[in-house]
Specification:
It is a single chain. By secondary structure, this protein is of the alpha+beta class. It has three domains: about 350 residues, no CATH class; about 200 residues, no CATH class; about 170 residues, no CATH class. Helix content is about 50%, strand content about 15%. It starts with a helix and ends with a helix.
Length: about 775
């Protein structure tokens, strides 16, 4: 019986090729995007879920009460916390602290490269499930000169994974011995490394790393079975050393750190999960648009299928059998579209991976993949076919066979109109969203930040340059291709450090404050093009190492009328404010400008900021490379433009904009396909009327207007509905930026006009074709 359903369904599809084609194209587009987004969602949801102790793994985070009553949440914690938890908290089975290290120099024979990894305490490979191909997980990090490397790294430097016992020269001054080789790290892991060394090596000679006030390390714990995380939170909050620094630690499930990473005022309020939900919802809506096309075209052609339904009922078919026939037709259409969608998704996957920076693939050998595809096919078929099936199977056979041709009533017409309005409402809202997102991304990338980043070059002071930083700068300035150069302890466009230790005359001892500190060297203000409002820049005087320069926001926070010369105390010691600079954006435009304190400390900088002379950027790069290699032989020369580093802050927004472009385009195409189908049907249904009108002298324009006005009116209604909905959605999205655009009226006008023009072009195409048809032939056929 079921096979017969599909045979009949196939005949009906072939009988109405144009409508079948419209449905299959629309469903193929919708299913393609749904498949791609489903692959991405599956990957995102699986992040950090593969660890054997996953249900008991937590990351220690800290709420810092440094600036008022509302805390700032840090994903870091102090270095001494991990050993204290492991030694004094019976609920904690294991506690591990780590810190990331970027671009360490590795040398094995003639093979040289820069590799990134972690310093971690010994229990790392017992806490996390990163299996070792070789070596013992329990003792791999027990010796100071030991190192665990990844399988890829072993093959790169030793051409084999059997590398235990082999040696690597790190940073040209240390020989380390491979104590373990880790299997390839899963792509769905946030912890990614090429190597891991004992944390004790990192701590050596760094007293600051052992203080409770330095909250800059990652701490992970494994709780015992039955242990209550909230009870552990209370015990940690009672640690006196943390209370002194106004830090309140808490355990956060490690599996949630990827998707639920955003905190506001100490409370979790989203993260990547927001993008996941947004794109999933949009993909679902795009698929729904394609289903609406099927519903509209099926119900519009109801009159043509009335006789078929009447005859089937007369010969004994009950309503259930008829519903089965119509559902089979929808499922068969969807099955064909699913097949095309799988092929199209395979072709689109490389571009999709590039967009998302992923390595997704469709696993054709997995039953889960085909089960998911089948489930999606059946769900879509039922969604598209259920209402038409129930609607068409309700015809009364006696009335149909008596010649009382079924005519769709007001209810079905209103439904079709409502669905068309819904389609274009969503499409227009997406067009408005695309315009606003692209405007905001353009705004943040091109806003005057109060600092000169054009052609600015960053070079990390690594290897021998760590002790030759000022010499490196002076050598660069000998070149006519270099206008200025300075040294900093952070990226001037994204200062990540914060401190609450600033005091000044008259400060309330109970007041909590937070400032963004940055170590700088000579010529910082000149090189970065920051405006000096009062006082002077740092000089190469020993006394300046105890002096500070602040920004306008810091002056406002301290309430100083004449800040220059004011005695202040910072964690570096007492000193004077010797200068005030104009506020510039020292973080992402998501955040308001914060108080900033610059300290002159050339010995604690790591980044050279170099400004090429106008029109000499390429020459400057060559000069920088030459000086770098002369002072730091053996190290590969790398650099990055400040503009490129700055753009990384808006990666999520750029991705949102690109995806919105695609979603909006697909939504418009699907909506127009549905509109085209309805116009084709309307023209067929009114063939006799059009023929008569042409015989009595109607023009092509009047006939086009006759067929077009109803549909264009529906799109106009969609514009009216979409505009306030899109404004509300985009207004809320823009609240995530401290500095943002205003949504202008012309955005809605442009989106509405574009939708109307696209709809008119779609409708006119078929209307003109109908209007130009031979009226004699039309009347003879009727």
């Amino acid at each position: 019986m079921f096979l017969n359903y599909f045979k009949v369904a196939f005949r009906n599809l072939m009988k109405h090729k144009v409508f079948t084609g419209i449905n299959i194209i629309g469903l193929t587009l919708g299913l393609t995007f749904t498949l791609l987004i489903s692959l991405w969602v599956k990957e995102e949801l699986s992040y950090n879920r593969f660890h054997a102790n996953g249900d008991h793994l937590y990351k220690v985070m800290c709420n810092l009460y440094w600036s008022g009553d509302e805390p700032t949440t840090s994903t870091n914690s102090p270095g001494p916390l991990a050993p204290k938890l492991e030694e004094e908290f019976p609920e904690v089975v294991r506690a591990v602290k780590t810190t990331y290290s970027n671009d360490e120099l590795f040398t094995v024979g003639k093979i040289i490269g820069k590799e990134s990894g972690f310093y971690a305490s010994p229990g790392f490979f017992e806490l996390f499930t990163f299996p070792l191909l070789a070596g013992d997980a329990g003792s791999a990090l027990s010796e100071p000169n030991s190192i665990v490397i990844s399988e890829d790294l072993a093959n790169k430097y030793f051409h084999t994974a059997d590398a235990v016992g082999k040696t690597i020269r790190m940073n040209q001054d240390e020989e380390v011995t491979v104590s373990g080789v880790a299997r390839e790290i899963p792509s769905n892991s946030t912890i990614r490394f090429s190597w891991i060394r004992p944390f004790s090596v990192f701590e050596k000679g760094k007293d600051w790393a052992k203080t409770w006030g330095n909250i800059s390390f990652d701490t992970y714990v494994q709780l015992a079975d039955g242990a209550d995380p909230k009870a552990v939170d209370k015990k940690m909050a009672a640690i006196e050393q943390l209370k002194e620094h106004k830090a309140e630690p808490f355990l956060y499930p490690f599996g949630d750190t990827y998707l639920y990473s955003r905190f506001t005022n100490g409370k979790q309020d989203g993260g990547r999960i927001d993008h996941l939900r947004l794109f999933s919802a949009i993909a679902g809506f795009v698929l729904l648009l394609a289903c609406i096309n099927f519903i509209n075209l099926a119900t519009a052609r109801a009159g043509q299928r009335a006789r078929e339904t009447g005859i089937r009922k007369v010969v004994g078919a009950n309503r259930g059998v008829l519903v089965g026939h119509f559902i089979a037709e929808a499922v068969l259409t969807t099955a064909l579209a699913t097949g095309f969608a799988v092929v199209l998704a395979e072709f689109a996957l490389s571009g999709f991976n590039q967009l998302f920076d992923k390595t997704l693939r469709m696993d054709y050998g997995s039953p889960y993949f085909w089960g998911g595809a089948l489930g999606l096919c059946l769900f879509t078929g039922l969604l598209a076919g259920m209402y038409p099936a129930i609607f068409l199977s309700a015809f009364k056979p006696v009335r149909v066979l008596k010649g009382e041709v079924f005519k769709a009533g007001k209810g079905s017409n209103m439904l079709r109109k409502g669905l068309v309005v819904f389609q274009f409402t969503l499409s227009i809202a997406l067009i408005i969203g695309v315009i606003v997102v692209n405007q905001q991304v353009h705004y943040v990338k091109n806003k005057n930040l109060g600092i000169d980043r054009k052609d600015m070059i960053y070079v990390i002071m690594e290897g021998a340059l760590g002790e030759k930083q000022e010499l490196f700068r002076q050598e660069l300035l000998k070149s006519s291709a270099i206008q200025a150069a300075t040294l900093t302890g952070d990226d001037p466009l994204n200062i990540e450090s914060s401190s609450g230790d600033l005091t000044w005359p008259g400060k309330d001892p109970n007041r909590s404050t937070s400032v963004s500190p940055m170590f700088v060297g000579n010529d910082f203000i000149k090189t970065m093009g920051i405006e000096l409002l009062a006082g002077r820049d740092f000089k190469s005087f020993p006394a300046d190492s105890a002096n500070y320069i602040v920004n306008e926001t810091a002056v406002s926070m301290m309430g100083l009328e004449n800040p220059v010369g004011t005695e202040v105390e910072f964690w570096m010691g007492k000193g004077q404010i010797i200068g005030v600079v104009k506020d510039y954006h020292l973080k992402s435009l998501h955040e308001a400008i914060t108080p900033m304190v610059l300290a002159y400390y050339p010995g604690n900088t790591y980044l050279a900021c170099i400004k090429p002379a106008a029109g000499k950027t390429d020459e400057a790069i060559d000069q920088i490379g030459a000086v770098f290699k002369d002072l730091n032989p053996g190290y590969p020369f790398d650099y990055i433009f400040a503009d490129d580093q700055f753009a990384k802050q808006y990666k999520a927004e750029t991705l949102t904009g690109k995806l919105a472009n695609w979603f909006a385009g697909i939504a418009v195409v699907i909506s127009c396909l549905g509109l085209l189908g309805l116009v084709i049907y309307a023209a067929e249904r009114r063939t006799k009327e059009i023929g008569i009108r042409k015989v009595i002298g109607a023009s092509v324009g009047s006939i086009v207007g006759l067929l077009s006005k109803e549909f264009i009116g529906l799109v106009a209604v969609a514009v009216v509905i979409a505009s306030p909905l899109a404004w509300w959605a985009m207004h809320n999205w823009l609240q995530g930026f401290a500095y943002r655009i205003n949504i202008s009226w012309w955005v809605f006008a442009l989106a509405g006009l574009a939708a109307l023009l696209i709809a008119f072009a779609t409708v006119s195409f078929q209307s003109i074709k109908a209007a130009l048809a031979n009226p004699i032939r039309s009347l003879r056929n009727e």
